[in-house]
Every structure is written in structure tokens, then in C-alpha cells.
Amino acid sequence: MNFGPAKLPSRTGHQMISRQEPRASPDFIVFSIGDSRKPSTWSNVPYFFTATLERRGYGVEHVDIGPSRILQLMFDVPWKSFCKLTGRHTRYTYLRSGYNRKVTDAKIRRALQRFPGGHCVFMTFSFGAGPSRPYTLFCDQTFAQHIAYFDEREPDSLELPTILAERKVMKASSMIIALFPEVAETLGKFHGGKVKYYGNVVNSTNMNVNPQELLERKLNAREIVFIGNRKYKEGLERLGQAVRILNGRGMDWLTVNVIGMEHGELHAAPHNMHFHGYLDKGKPEQARLYRQVLERSRVYVNPNPKWAAFSASCEALYLCTPVVIFPYREFQRTFGDVNSVGSALASNRPEELADAIEALVTDDSTWTRKALAAHAATKDMSWDNYVDHFLKDLGQIRHGSSLG
Predict the structure, then answer these.
(1) Are the C-beta atoms of 36 and 47 separated by less than 8 Å?
(2) Which residue in 198, 223, 191 sits closest to 293, CA to CA?
(3) What is the DSSP letter of 257?
(4) 3-class secondary structure for 181-240?
(5) CB within 8 A of 25, min separation 6: which ones?
(6) Helix, strand, coil proportions of the chain in percent (round to 5)?
(7) Of 168, 130, 126, nearest to 143 (Cα)?
(8) Is 345 exposed, middle or buried (0-12, 13-18, 19+ CB in 10 A)?
(9) How far apart are CA 163 and CA 15, in angstroms?
(10) Which residue, among 259, 253, 355, 247, has the nearest Cα to 300 in the 3D structure?
(11) In this predicted structure, what is the pLDDT of residue 4?
């Protein structure tokens, strides 16, 4: 099995690998928390990663190591209620429990016995194949980084075992792929050159866009878009306040599309906010609607302070859609100054958000410049390019340390 770029299977010279007919001896065994054949799993990342490998002619076995939904609910519902009543703030859940780790490790062992060949890829930093089998880790943040960044605190006693387990998993891995530059830089200090960063990706199978044609359509657009699930409710509420301000300025002709949440998530939503709920890219009609909304939108808005649905932002940028977001660190490390591809928010004031939206919607010259810069910043972020980097590094590691 040679993963070097010169030996990549031709797209036309190999038969398409069916997802329903996995090979008996796959080239890759991909472990993910959720089904990697479904776009709904972890922001589409496992889906596009495995689909790209399969399109290249590689055999991929998909192993879902996600917890039992019933056990998860039985544990998490009363536990979260208890934490709320007692004021305890923790990210410890059934997923992070010792019992789930034992169950998950058993699932992994069974998969490794069933498939003694093939390189293992874990779409998580929490689990690995152990010291006897080479494996790659591919994720966005470690559990410790997540707690430090979003909660700005030290881990508690229940969270610490997961953190220690992740460190062992990363130490035993052959390669670690980090989706974000700051995460990669931090991990590189502890794990050296086996930590890789390839930039980011646009989660789309259609990377053939004519930016000039798209600009002409968007110049007449009267729509903006917010993308985010319930984790981003704070941003949606702030957007609702800004829309009321804009409506008061006579801009109630502006249509605000909300993808990821339902109408009931926002109390007394303005009349020109349209809610589409979650749009599943695994369903053709919903995937088309998702794309159509982005292609019609003049601006992408997600005023959540620490994170603004990064993957959705990349898709918006690729489709010539400037962003209105807070300048959180990983976005700036990836794209530079937010103001070059949109507008950077400096405060939580809904008036500032309304001003930023109004400026991009009404100033055609400024909008055009930023829309073109947005597309230029993401035009090379294809999954084909990403997988090329992965296969090249994997081939070098295999040559140097005898993978598989």
C-alpha cells in the first residue's frame, strides 16, 4: 500500500468504491463519533474526508464509535439537570465517562480484529488503536483546549481522566492532523513534527464557481444568512435585535435566512426572518436549498463572540459572501484581518451589528471588493487538495517508519 502522491489511483482508471459494498481488506479504517457516511456527523468533515478517499479509489471501512443514544440520554439528562440545580459547570458527560471509554475501546478492538490490514484514522483525539497498530488522529481541538478556550478555566476532576487519556492516545499515534493553526501550533510543542496542519476546507463537492457570474447575481440580492445550531443562540438573539433596528431604518425589505434553528428558538422574531431549520446535506433537496440560500445571500452573519460556525463561514466565503463576525483567533490565524473579507465586530451592541450589515448591503463597491477577496481566500480549500497533503505525509511516514 503506497500513499505517495505519484501513486494516487486515477479517478478514471479505478472503479468507484460503493459505500454499500466495503472491501474485505480496506485501505483505511475510519473511526468517528457518529456515522462518517452521513454529512450530519461533525460538521460534514468525516463525510467529505472519506468520500474523497473513496472517489480516489481507496477502500474505506466506516466504524461508528459513537455512544449508545439511549445510554447517553439516560445519563446526560439527569446529570445535566443536577449540574444546573447545583450550579456546577462541567463538560463531563456520558461520552467522557470511564464506562463509555471501556465500551468504545471494545468496539475499536473488534474492528481491528475484523480488519487486520489498512491504516486507521480516528476523527477524534479521544480514542486510538493502541501501541500495536499505526494510526492517524484528525480533529479540531483536544478536550483540554476546548475547556481552556470556551470556558476559560482549568479542567475539573471529572474531566481530567479524558484529558490524560487523550495525551496517551496522541503520544502513541503516528500522525496528528489539526484542523486549525493555533491548535496545531500548541500540539506541535508537545508532539513535534508528527502534528500536521493543511489549512482548512470548504465542505462542498462543487468547487466549480464563476465568481464574476455569482457577483452579478448577488449585487441585486436582498438576503443575508445566519448559519448555526442552538449552540449559537446568543448570536441569533443579537442578530434579531439588529434586524429590528434595520427594520426601523426602513430596511424591512431585507430577508434574513436562518439555517440550523427553528422559528421557536427566537422569541418574537422579526417578520423578515425566515427559519429553515437544520438542512441535511445528505438529502438532495435540503442540500440544494442550503446552496441556493448561500448563493442568494449578500452577507453571512454570525455574531457569536468566540466562534462563528467556522465551516459554514468557509462555504460562505467561497461563494463570494463577506462575513460579519467577531474576530476570533482561529479565523484570524486562517484568513488574516476579518475586515479584508467582511466586517469585524468590536462589541456586543446590536447597533454596531446593524451598521455593519447595512454597510455591506448598501455599499456595492466595498461589498464587491470584499466578496472577491472572500472567494480568493478559499478557492484552493478543496477536499482534493487536503487529501493530497494527507496521502503525501502518510506515504512519507510509512516509508520512514514502516506503517501497516
Answers:
(1) yes
(2) 223
(3) E
(4) HHHHHHHHHHHHHHEECCCCCCCCCCCCCCHHHHHHHHHCCCEEEEECCHHHHHHHHHHH
(5) 59, 115, 117, 118
(6) 50, 15, 40
(7) 126
(8) buried
(9) 42
(10) 259
(11) 46
pLDDT tens, position by position, 121-147? 999 999 999 998 999 999 999 999 999
Q: Are 308 and 235 in contact (CB under 8 A)?
A: yes
Closest residue by Cα to residue 394 from 58, 64, 47: 58
Please state, in angstroms and rounded to a whole number, the distance separating the CA atoms of residues 172 and 129.
9
**Model confidence pLDDT, tens digit, residues 231-267:** 999 999 999 999 999 999 999 999 999 999 999 999 8
Neighbours of 163 (CB within 10 A): 16
Task: With a cut of 70, list the residues of the chain below it in pLDDT.
Answer: 1-24, 399-404
| Sequential DSSP letters for 350-384 | HHHHHHHHHHHHH-HHHHHHHHHHHHHHHTT--HH
Enumerate the β-bridge partners of residue 137: 122, 176
Grid cell in block for residue 117 = 490490514
Positive or negative, the CA dihedral 89, 140, 318, 199 is positive
Per-residue confidence (pLDDT) for residue 404, from 0 to 100: 39
Q: What is the largest CA-CA distance in the chain?
A: 67
Q: What is the pLDDT of residue 95?
A: 97
| DSSP SS3 for 134 | coil
d(CA 54, CA 61): 10
pLDDT at 254: 98
Cite the DSSP H helix spans in 41-173.
Answer: 45-55, 69-86, 98-114, 143-146, 160-172
Residue with cell 508537545: 190
Output the CA–CA distances (angstroms, integers) from residue 319 to 134, 226, 293, 340, 385, in the order listed. Answer: 38, 15, 11, 15, 18
Nearest residue to 352 (alpha-carbon basis) of 227, 246, 251:
246
Give yes or no for a contact between 121 and 108, defined as CB atoms under 8 angstroms apart: no
